[in-house]
Amino acid sequence: MKRQNKVRKCQGEIVQVSEIFERKTTSVKNYGIVLKYLTRTGVVNMYKEYRSNSLNDAVSQMYSEMAGRHSARSENIHIIKTTRLENSAVKRPQTLQFMKTSLRFPKFTQNKRAPTAAHKSTFTASRPILV
User: Fold this and answer.
1) Which residue from 4, 43, 78, 124 has the fewest beta carbons nearer than 10 Å?
2) How far is the C-alpha of 94 from the C-alpha of 61, rounded, in Å?
3) Residue 32 — very low, low, confident or very high, per pLDDT cuts 50/70/90?
4) How confident is the model at residue 1 (pLDDT cuts 50, 70, 90)?
5) Residues 6+ apart with CB under 8 A from 47
6) 85 DSSP β-pair partners
């Protein structure tokens, strides 16, 4: 609290912490996160963009990415601002590549299923399929 707001611990008090739930989690949205994190040498300001169903998922993606790419622990990361972005406001190329309307992903394996439960067998001898 002191690092972000310049308040001593004895004079500041956290009154309530609550999780914010999204209204519509069935569609993918763009989120921008402004953050600062502490390195071994100083403080770094950063702006990151994510595509996710909810803001909570975007923040958890950010924590995972910061741990992997920058070796930043969660207690050293301070989120300053989060915003929901329109498609025209997205800047980063790694987010722009997933915004095409003709984007399709290939299906690599197909699992063959029995037509009814009566034809299904619990144990079947078959060779493993390696992808």
Assistant:
1) 124
2) 14
3) very high
4) low
5) 32, 33, 34, 35
6) 30
